[in-house]
């Protein structure tokens, strides 16, 4: 069957081409006329139809113009929403800071230790580790009303009180007021402590509402166990208890600083921060200088400088601007 021919379409196309030719002829004829004649004829030209067309397009134009603006507005709204969500997340997971009580330190670590964290203080004998811990407890009590407990595995309570008095720290009085407590543990009662899940410590924390703990020292604690395996297991158990108690804690150790920092499975890996105290000698000047260094502190932007420290009348003071060697 022969294909049906659409004559109406053909006729329409022919008419369109004829009209285009006619318009083109008129345009050519108009532009062939002298200029003064073209101007005279154009004065009588009716622009009304053209103006109406322009107005119709003008009503559509704003809709077209608004499209890019709408996209931009949507992008801006999305960006504002993302900023709001980020602000809410930061607020929700904001790190609450605990002032250290160490003069000059808080401004170097975004305001203090992270609340509930465990901070390892390492250094050799005579570097001020125990003093650091006592100062943390003392100013926590008197400046922030945060009761504290000092857990000792080697030093006696009377000696702690005696060595604190030159700095104006009357721990005996604080103890009478129920704000401070020294818990002493000897080899024969450490095993009982662990079997009870830290019963005595846990009870004291609850009774006092303690917020701060100092353990002096984890090195002495580790030496109370017979072999390396038993030592390691008990340290892990002790840190597990520490996290459950919910206090901000300082753990003192005589482990060499770099070893504490890099040795896998060491105490340093179980803590949130490591601060090293040194008593270094300048061979050229023939003098020793007390310094400290923040080796790590999770979630905190901290200084990496070796910091000079002094033992002043009210405790340890850090001097970040003093050049060390």
Describe, in plain words, how this protein is organized in 3D.
By secondary structure, the chain is of the alpha/beta class. The chain folds into three domains: 1-41; 46-89; 97-319, P-loop containing nucleotide triphosphate hydrolases (Rossmann fold, 3-Layer(aba) Sandwich). It has helices at 7-32, 35-43, 48-92, 129-144, 157-164, 171-176, 187-195, 199-208, 218-222, 228-245, 257-262, 267-270, and strands at 97-98, 113-114, 118-122, 148-152, 180-184, 212-216, 248-253, 273-282, 287-297, 307-312, 315-319. The strands form two sheets. Strands 5-4-6-7-3-8-9-10-11 form a nine-stranded mixed β-sheet, sandwiched between helices. Strand 10 (307-312) and strand 11 form a beta hairpin. The relative contact order is 0.12.
Question: Could you name the key traits of this structure?
Answer:
325 residues, alpha/beta, Rossmann fold, nine-stranded mixed β-sheet
CATH superfamily of the largest domain: P-loop containing nucleotide triphosphate hydrolases
Oligomer state equals: single chain
Report, as a whole number of angstroms, the end-to-end distance: 106 Å
Strand-pairing-aware structural class: alpha/beta
The CATH topology of the largest domain corresponds to Rossmann fold
Strand content: 15-25%
Largest sheet: 9 strands, mixed
What is the strand tally? 11
What's the CATH first level of the largest domain?
Alpha Beta
CATH architecture of the largest domain: 3-Layer(aba) Sandwich
Strand order of the largest sheet: 5-4-6-7-3-8-9-10-11
Number of helices: 12
Number of domains: 3
Q: Using the CA coordinates, give the radius of gyration.
A: 41 Å
> What string gives the helices and strands in order?
HHHEEEHEHHEHHEHHEHHEEEE
């Amino acid at each position: 069957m022969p294909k049906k021919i659409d004559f109406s379409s053909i006729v329409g196309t022919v008419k369109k081409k004829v009209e285009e030719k006619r318009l083109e002829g008129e345009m050519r004829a108009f532009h062939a006329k002298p200029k003064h004649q073209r101007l005279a004829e154009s004065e009588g030209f009716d622009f009304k139809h053209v103006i109406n067309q322009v107005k119709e397009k003008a009503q559509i134009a704003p809709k077209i113009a608004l499209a890019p603006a709408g996209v931009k507005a949507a992008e801006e709204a999305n960006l504002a929403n993302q900023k709001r969500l980020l602000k809410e997340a930061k607020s929700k997971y904001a790190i609450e800071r605990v002032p250290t009580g160490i003069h000059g330190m808080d401004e170097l670590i975004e305001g203090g230790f992270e609340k509930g964290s465990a901070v390892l203080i390492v250094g050799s004998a005579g570097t001020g580790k125990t003093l650091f811990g006592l100062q943390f407890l003392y100013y926590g009590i008197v400046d922030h009303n945060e009761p504290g407990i000092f857990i000792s595995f080697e030093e006696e309570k009377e000696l702690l009180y005696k060595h604190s008095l030159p700095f104006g720290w009357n721990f005996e009085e604080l103890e009478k007021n129920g704000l401070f407590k020294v818990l002493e543990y000897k080899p024969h009662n450490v095993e009982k402590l662990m079997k009870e899940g830290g019963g005595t410590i846990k009870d004291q924390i609850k009774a006092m509402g303690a917020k701060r703990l100092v353990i002096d020292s984890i090195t002495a604690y580790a030496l109370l166990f017979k072999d390396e395996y038993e030592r390691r297991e008990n340290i892990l158990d002790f840190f597990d208890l520490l996290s459950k108690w919910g206090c901000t804690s300082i753990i003192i150790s005589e482990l060499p600083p770099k070893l504490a920092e890099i040795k896998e499975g060491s105490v340093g890996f179980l803590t949130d921060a490591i601060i090293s105290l040194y008593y270094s000698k300048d061979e050229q000047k023939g003098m020793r200088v007390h310094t400290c260094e923040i080796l790590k502190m999770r979630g905190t932007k901290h200084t990496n400088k070796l910091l000079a420290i002094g033992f002043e009348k009210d405790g340890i003071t850090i001097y970040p601007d003093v050049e060390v060697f």
